[in-house]
Design brief:
Elements: E1 6-15, E2 18-28, H1 44-52, E3 59-64, E4 67-68, H2 74-79, H3 97-108
Antiparallel strand pairs: 1-2, 1-3, 3-4
Length: 113
């Protein structure tokens, strides 16, 4: 039996004295789809920031395919097989898909408009 694709074990995150994430535990099996819902301010973005490595958890463990990823840098987590996308998109409607993608690549290489 293979390990879960993603597992969170009693993950917590505090900013100062304010505890934002309070002991989240969940398991996502390979191929399974899971939704995270809640009102504004519930901690959904913070949870995704913890999983993707943007923030380090205050306590708890995050595992990807059975390997701990909590405390790793985002690029290390990406190389381990987990990537994140953001809701905000900046596209140029008069450019082709290829040209839009090329702009993103050039920007990441240090070229500016």
């Amino acid at each position: 039996m293979s390990p879960p694709a993603l597992e969170l074990r009693d993950v917590r995150k505090s900013f100062g004295k304010t505890e934002i994430i309070r002991g989240v535990s969940m398991t996502v099996q390979p191929g399974e789809r899971v939704g995270v819902i809640g009102p504004n301010g519930a901690g959904k973005s913070t949870l995704f920031n913890l999983i993707s490595g943007r923030f380090a958890p205050s306590s708890g463990e995050i595992l990807l395919n059975g390997q701990r990823i909590d405390g790793k840098k985002p690029y290390e987590i990406n190389r381990a097989g987990l990537s994140r996308s953001f809701q905000i998109t900046n596209i140029f409607p008069k450019l082709s898909v290829f040209e839009n993608l090329r702009c993103g690549v050039l920007w990441s290489l240090g070229y500016r408009y």
